[in-house]
């Protein structure tokens, strides 16, 4: 149920973003002709539509951060054999540091992406374990990202493989009208938590 709610929240925010973008493209793509001269499309966006689109994008980012943080909690709890019911999943206790870590990681990734994309990709790869470390060791954002980079640096091949697996799972889940994310999300979170435990030399207790 918690994962289903997260998927529903992602869909509720992302669908308006896509719909607004498609509507703008369809509206502006009606190119008028003046004789034999083709007039190019106008990409101007009304202020109201722009504000709504920006609000939807911000909302999507907030949902994405929550999915990342709550997903890390879900994966670690499952790998460790701890309860993963709705009450334990949604409680705000202990989310401060991991949420701050996810925000800082998202900002660094965005800045790196603007710098010819590759720095953003490197930040995303090196920071894969940051939120888990923040939950596990109660690290602050800077320390969690630094320790994640050290852990990823010791296992570069495994870290890249994990990123590819998670990306494939997310893409496959999104193709089925976002319904597949209800399966892709838990598998990706659990795989990340399990691998993090193995690389950190602290294997969890299998659930059940």
Topology:
Layout: H1 2-28, E1 33-34, E2 37-38, H2 47-80, H3 86-90, H4 96-114, H5 118-126, H6 130-137, H7 141-154, H8 156-175, H9 181-199
Could you describe the 3D structure shown?
The chain is mainly α and 208 residues long. It has one domain. Helices cover 75% and strands 2% of the residues. It is built from nine helices and two strands. It has helices at 2-28, 47-80, 86-90, 96-114, 118-126, 130-137, 141-154, 156-175, 181-199; strands at residues 33-34, 37-38. A two-stranded antiparallel sheet has the order 1-2. Strand 1 and strand 2 (37-38) form a beta hairpin. Helix 1 crosses helix 9 (181-199), helix 2 packs across helix 6 (130-137) and helix 4 (96-114) runs antiparallel to helix 5 (118-126). 26% of the residues are buried.
DSSP strand content: under 5%
The sequence of SSEs as H and E is HEEHHHHHHHH
Total helical segments: 9
Unreliable stretches: 35-43, 204-208
């Amino acid at each position: 149920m918690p994962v289903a709610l997260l998927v529903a929240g992602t869909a509720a925010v992302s669908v308006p973003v896509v719909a607004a973008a498609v509507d703008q493209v369809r509206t502006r793509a009606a190119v008028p002709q003046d004789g034999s001269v083709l007039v190019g499309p106008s990409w101007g966006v009304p202020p109201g539509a722009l504000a709504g689109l920006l609000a939807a994008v911000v909302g999507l980012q907030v949902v994405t951060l929550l999915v990342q943080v709550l997903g890390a909690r879900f994966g670690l709890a499952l790998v460790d054999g701890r309860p993963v019911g709705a009450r334990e999943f949604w409680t705000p206790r202990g989310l401060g540091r991991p949420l701050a870590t996810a925000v800082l990681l998202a900002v660094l990734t965005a800045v790196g992406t603007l710098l010819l994309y590759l720095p953003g990709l490197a930040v995303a790869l090196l920071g894969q374990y940051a939120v888990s470390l923040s939950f596990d060791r109660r690290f602050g954002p800077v320390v969690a990202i630094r320790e994640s980079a050290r852990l990823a640096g010791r296992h570069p091949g495994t870290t890249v493989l994990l990123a590819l697996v998670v990306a494939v799972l997310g893409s496959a889940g999104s193709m089925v009208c976002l319904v597949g994310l209800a399966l892709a999300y838990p598998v990706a979170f659990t795989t990340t938590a399990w691998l993090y435990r193995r690389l950190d030399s602290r294997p969890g207790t299998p659930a059940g």
